[in-house]
Design brief:
The protein is an alpha+beta fold. The protein folds into two domains: about 140 residues, Diaminopimelate Epimerase, Chain A, domain 1 (Roll); about 140 residues, Diaminopimelate Epimerase, Chain A, domain 1 (Roll), CATH 3.10.310.10. Helices cover about 15% and strands about 40% of the residues. The chain is built from four helices and 18 strands. The chain has an 18-stranded mixed β-sheet that branches. The N and C termini lie close together (about 5 Å). InterPro entries: DAP_epimerase_AS, DAP_epimerase_DapF. Its EC number is 5.1.1.7.
Length: about 290
C-alpha cells in the first residue's frame, strides 16, 4: 500500500503527516504504521505519526500516534504543523481556525508571509492542575489537590515535582544545570511510575530568569525528543506556580530544537507561539 506523506517538524520534534482528507488507512494498521514510519533505519525516521482529518466540531482534526504505536491526547508542536499543513493545502483559507485533538478543540492562528506559513500561535486552553485530573495518584493525597513542588523520590534521586495537564499529563522537575539533568535515568523511570496511571511526560527545567528557561523532555511513548510544545506550556505554568515566572508575561523556552514563546494569560489560557516547517514529501510503502 502506498501512503503519501509529508514530513514536518516543530523545533526538531518531527512527525510523519498523512492527509486523511485524501488517504484512508485502516484503523487496525495505524499503530504499526506509526512504528514503521518512525523507525530511522527501516522507515523514514520521526517521533511518530499524525493524521489530519475532517472534523465535525472544528475546521480540521488531528490524531497523534507515538513512535511506539500508542495514541496520544495532544501535541503542541504537532498542532502548529497541522495548522500549517491545513492552510498550505487549502483546507482552510482563514488565518485563524480551530483544530480538534483527542484532548479537545484549540484555536490556531497562522502567520503568512508571501503565501508561506512560518509561525503559528495556538491557544492551548487552560491547564488542569487537580491531581485526580492529571491523573496522578498517591496514598495520602486528595484528588482535588494541586501538586506543586511536592517531594518525589525516584530511586536515589530526591526530587520535587509539579504536575500539570495540558490535555496530556506532565511532571516538571527543576535542576540547577540543564546539561546535567538526569533525563536518561529519571525520564524512563518516572514516565512509567505507578503514581501516573496513564504515564506522564517528564520535563526538566533550568530557570535563567523570570522570562527565560532551559528545557529538556522525556516524552511518554517516544523518549527523548528535540521539543515538546505541551511540555513547554506545562513548564511555564509550573514556573508561575513556583514563583519563578509571572502570569501574563511571555516566557522564552529554550528547547533542544529551538525556542518557543509561552504566555499563561490572566484569563487562564496558555498561548504558544513557534515555527512549523515542512521537510519533505513522498510515498511510504506499507506491507
Amino acid at each position: 500500500m502506498k501512503i503519501p506523506f509529508t514530513k514536518m517538524h516543530g523545533l526538531g520534534n518531527s512527525y510523519i503527516y498523512v492527509d486523511g482528507f485524501q488517504t484512508q488507512i485502516n484503523e487496525s494498521d495505524l499503530p504499526l504504521l506509526a512504528q514503521s514510519v518512525s523507525n530511522v533505519n527501516t522507515g523514514i525516521g520521526s517521533d511518530g505519526l499524525i493524521l489530519m482529518l475532517p472534523s465535525d466540531v472544528a475546521d480540521v482534526r488531528m490524531r497523534i500516534f507515538n513512535k511506539d504505536g500508542s495514541e496520544a491526547m495532544n501535541c503542541g508542536n504537532g498542532i502548529r504543523c497541522v495548522a500549517k499543513l491545513a492552510y498550505d493545502l487549502g483546507y482552510v483559507t482563514k488565518e485563524q481556525f480551530e483544530i480538534e485533538a483527542k484532548s479537545g478543540v484549540v484555536t490556531a492562528e497562522v502567520e503568512v508571509e508571501e503565501g508561506v506559513v512560518n509561525n503559528v500561535t495556538v491557544d492551548m486552553g487552560k491547564p488542569e492542575l487537580k491531581r485526580g485530573n492529571i491523573p496522578m495518584v498517591t496514598l495520602t493525597g486528595d484528588d482535588e489537590d494541586h501538586v506543586i513542588s511536592d517531594p518525589f523520590l525516584v530511586g536515589e534521586e530526591d526530587l520535587y515535582a509539579t504536575a500539570v495537564s495540558m490535555g496530556n499529563p506532565h511532571v516538571v522537575f527543576y535542576v540547577d544545570d540543564i546539561s546535567e539533568a538526569p533525563i536518561d535515568s529519571v525520564g524512563p523511570a518516572v514516565t512509567t511510575d505507578h503514581r501516573f496511571p496513564e504515564g506522564v511526560n517528564v520535563e526538566f527545567v533550568e530557570v535563567l530568569n523570570e522570562r527565560e528557561i532551559n528545557f529538556r523532555v522525556w516524552e511518554r511513548g517516544s523518549g527523548i525528543t528535540q521539543a515538546c510544545g505541551t511540555g513547554a506550556c506545562a513548564a511555564v505554568v509550573s514556573s508561575v506556580l513556583n514563583e519563578h515566572s509571572r502570569r501574563n508575561e511571555e516566557v522564552i523556552v529554550h528547547l533542544d530544537g529551538g525556542d518557543l514563546s509561552i504566555t499563561w494569560q490572566d484569563d487562564g489560557h496558555v498561548l504558544m507561539k513557534g515555527p512549523a516547517v515542512t521537510v519533505a514529501e513522498g510515498e511510504f510503502f506499507l506491507d
